[in-house]
Design brief:
Length: about 325
C-alpha cells in the first residue's frame, strides 16, 4: 500500500481512456451484438450538463420530458438514504438538492440501466443482476472514502462495470453457455473466458460503448479497468482513484462468480492496509442497501459471508495473495 500516486485533479482521464481503448474505440465493439441506444433525454442531458452556462431550469425540463427518469429521480431524492426534511416534489428541486455532478451521474446510471433492462436476457436474471451491481456500487463508494477518492464516481463506475453483460450474454448466448459459474472453485474468471473466446472482455466492450455514448472519461476508465483486481492499488495513476475502488468491488461474488475467491483476496488485504476492514465494510454495505429505500430485498448480504470466511481464515494457513483475480 505504499505506491506513489498523483492527485485526482492531476489525472488526464482522456489520455488514460485513449491508452486503454485506442482509437477508434468503437472497433472493439463486437459487430454481431446489437446494443440499445441511450434514452434521448439522457443523451441531451449529458450534452447540456457539461456546459456550465446552461441554467438548471433547462436541465430540469429535459428530464421532465422523460417520465421514467422523473419518477426514478424523485424516488431517489425522497428515499430514506438521503433523509431530506421536506418531500421533494419537482425535478428542479431534486437537481438543486443533488448538485450538478451527482445529478449527472444519477441520470447516466439510471438511463443506462433502463436501456439495458429494456432488452431481455436469456442467461441473466435482470433483478438479481442489478441488485448485485448495487451492492458493488455501495462497496466501491465506501472504499473510495478510504482512498480519499470521489465516492460518487466510484459508486456509478461500479454500478455500471458489468452493464453490457445482459446484452452480450443474450446475443452471444451459445458462447456464454460454455462458461458455467460454480459455487466451488471456478477454473478461470469470466474475463479470462471472454479473452480466450472473443479476444476481448466485457470491460473493454462496456468502456467502448460508454465512450461512444460520450460519458465522462473517469466512468469509462472505471468500466475498462474493473477487472484489474488488487493489482490496481499499485498503479501509479489509478491506485488512489475511484477506478481502484470500482475494481475492488468487482471482487465481490456475483452471478458469474458465486464462490468466495474474491472475498478471500479482499480479506488478505487487511494486514497490508490497516484502514481496510472487510467485515466493517460489509456491515455498512448491507445496512445502506436496506436504508436506500429502493424496495430491493438483499438476498445475498455480505456480512454473513465475510464472517464465515474470516472464521475459516483464522484456522487456515496464510497463502500468497493473487492480485489478478476478479470478474
Amino acid at each position: 500500500m505504499g505506491a506513489q500516486t498523483v492527485g485526482a485533479n492531476e489525472i488526464d482521464w482522456a489520455a488514460l481512456r485513449e491508452e486503454a481503448l485506442g482509437d477508434p474505440a468503437s472497433s472493439l465493439v463486437p459487430p454481431n451484438v446489437k446494443f440499445p441506444a441511450l434514452p434521448h433525454a439522457v443523451t441531451l442531458y449529458v450534452q447540456k450538463a457539461r456546459d456550465q452556462a446552461v441554467p438548471l431550469k433547462e436541465l430540469a425540463a429535459i428530464l421532465e420530458a422523460d417520465s421514467g427518469l422523473t419518477i426514478q429521480l424523485l424516488k431517489y431524492v425522497n428515499s430514506s438514504y438521503l433523509a431530506v426534511k421536506r418531500k421533494v416534489v419537482s425535478v428542479l428541486q431534486a437537481l438543486s438538492l443533488l448538485g450538478s455532478q451527482k445529478s449527472l451521474r444519477f441520470v447516466i446510471a439510471t438511463g443506462m440501466e433502463a436501456a439495458i433492462r429494456a432488452h431481455d436476457s436469456k442467461l441473466i436474471k435482470q433483478n438479481e443482476f442489478w441488485n448485485t451491481n448495487l451492492q458493488k456500487a455501495i462497496f466501491a463508494r465506501e472504499v473510495a472514502l478510504l482512498l480519499n477518492a470521489d465516492p460518487e464516481v466510484a459508486f456509478v463506475g461500479a454500478l455500471l462495470q458489468d452493464f453490457v453483460l445482459p446484452v452480450l450474454t443474450n446475443d452471444l448466448f451459445e458462447d456464454y453457455c460454455q462458461f458455467v459459474p460454480s459455487e466451488e472453485t471456478t477454473p478461470r474468471s469470466l474475463g479470462e473466458f471472454e479473452q480466450a473466446r472473443f479476444g476481448l472482455d466485457h470491460g473493454l466492450v462496456g468502456a467502448c460503448l460508454a465512450h461512444a455514448w460520450n460519458l465522462p472519461d473517469e466512468l469509462v476508465c472505471c468500466i475498462c479497468y474493473h477487472h484489474s483486481g488488487l493489482q490496481i492499488l499499485t498503479h501509479p495513476k489509478l491506485g488512489r482513484t475511484p477506478v481502484a475502488a470500482a475494481a475492488l468491488s468487482a471482487l465481490l461474488p456475483d452471478h458469474f462468480c458465486r464462490n468466495n475467491r474474491g472475498l478471500e483476496l479482499l480479506l488478505k488485504l487487511e494486514p497490508k492496509w490497516l484502514a481496510f476492514d472487510l467485515e466493517r465494510l460489509a456491515d455498512s454495505v448491507d445496512r445502506q442497501y436496506v436504508h436506500m429505500g429502493l424496495g430491493l430485498h438483499n438476498d445475498f448480504p455480505l456480512l454473513p459471508r465475510c464472517k464465515s470466511l474470516a472464521k475459516e481464515a483464522s484456522v487456515s494457513p496464510v497463502e500468497p495473495v493473487d492480485a489478478a483475480a476478479g470478474t
